[in-house]
UniProtKB/TrEMBL annotation:
Annotated protein name in UniProt: Acyl-CoA dehydrogenase
Keyword Flavoprotein (UniProt): yes
InterPro entries cross-referenced by the UniProt entry: AcylCo_DH-like_C, AcylCo_DH/oxidase_C, AcylCoA_DH/ox_N, AcylCoA_DH/ox_N_sf, AcylCoA_DH/oxidase_NM_dom_sf
Entry keywords, A to Z: FAD, Flavoprotein, Oxidoreductase
Annotated organism of origin: Nocardia terrae
Length: 340
């Protein structure tokens, strides 16, 4: 997965043209432009109404958005559209859908009663695909009887809502991918988004300490500042290695057996890197870093919010432990490091 690509350049050009700022709970205008270009159906076969493309394409888009400090419904939309296409459904470009998970089960009549969330961008979606504790996922239309949304926002000010189901009925997607396969896809893409935000925060901080002077010299000349910057760079490289490997493994075959542990490791590595990057970048910026006018918060609030998107850091870590106990440490290591 290259650090430079036409897709990354496309996002940069869109940001320069449309801008990146949106109010709390608002869908950025940039997303509307992305939908016009068909980016919401990347990764979906053209025969199913998509634009073709691979998980690597989606990862590059997710990383580019994060590097520009932008949150849009790309991961939710592309994953939901992929689930629909794999289930044999025709996908409608521009129709936003979301994916959610719950430990609840259906009643004997096949209806769901549960409060599910947080679900990113749910209030802007027309449909939500819910994976319950057992059985095939079900697609519900938001606004139908028994399906409502309780609005909320995450630390980055992005839509992070709860979807409330009250004896709700929906369309069963009998041939949809498994919950593990979907979780792996979400894990890879959210890791890529975190990687982009880490990179954006690092580049902003590096430029700041190189140009800001103290005692007649750039801040980076102070050993403690240089060490802090080097630590962020180390976190970035670790996150990059884990994400690029997860994308590579998923590209070989999106089965949850191979892809899920790689995604889980990328998520835990990137979440740890996100925490350290946010802490260090604010330390190196000092008071400047907490002002609304300065763009650092566009990255660090997303680092805090996205590290627990789809599933929390602790849940991903527990998953790694469970997989290791099931398969054995050596077997899992061999799977993750195998070469063609």
């Amino acid at each position: 997965m290259s650090a430079e690509s036409a897709l990354r350049e496309l996002i940069s050009n869109l940001v320069a043209t449309v801008g990146a700022v949106a109010g709390a709970g608002e869908v950025p205008e940039l997303w509307l432009e992305m939908v016009k270009l068909g980016l919401d159906v990347v990764g979906v076969p053209e025969a199913s109404g998509g634009a073709d493309g691979s998980i690597e394409d989606l990862a590059q888009l997710s990383e580019a958005l994060g590097q520009n400090g932008i949150g849009v419904p790309l991961i939710q939309a592309s994953t939901a559209n992929w689930v629909l296409s794999e289930a044999g459904e025709q996908v409608n470009a521009g129709v936003l859908a979301a994916v959610a998970f719950t430990d609840s089960t259906l009643n004997i009549e096949g209806r769901l009663s549960a409060r599910v969330g947080p679900v990113p961008w749910a209030r802007s979606a027309e449909n939500v695909i819910v994976y319950t504790a057992s059985g095939s996922p079900i697609c519900y239309r938001i606004g139908d009887p028994g399906v409502s949304v309780e609005p909320g926002v995450n630390l980055a000010g992005e839509q992070s809502d709860a979807v409330v189901f009250t004896a709700a009925a929906g369309q069963v997607l009998a041939h949809a991918p498994t919950a593990g396969a979907v979780l792996a896809r979400l894990g890879v893409l959210w890791s890529a988004a975190l990687l982009g935000a880490i990179r954006g925060a690092y580049e902003l901080t590096r430029n700041y300490v190189r140009t800001r002077e103290q005692f007649g010299a750039p801040l980076v000349k102070i050993p403690a500042v240089a060490a802090g910057l080097a630590s962020i760079r180390t976190q970035l490289l670790q996150a990059e290695a884990s994400v690029y490997r997860a994308v590579e493994i998923y590209s070989i075959g999106p089965s949850e057996h191979a892809a899920l542990p790689a995604a889980a490791i990328a998520r835990t590595v990137c979440a740890t890197a996100a925490t350290e990057t946010a802490r260090l970048t604010h330390q190196l910026h000092g008071a400047m870093g907490i002002t609304a006018e300065y763009p650092l918060h566009r990255f660090t609030t997303k680092l805090w919010a996205w590290r627990d998107a789809a599933s929390s850091e602790s849940e991903w870590a527990k998953l790694i432990g469970d997989i290791t106990l099931e398969r054995g440490e050596r077997a899992l290591w061999d799977e993750l490091t195998a070469t063609a």
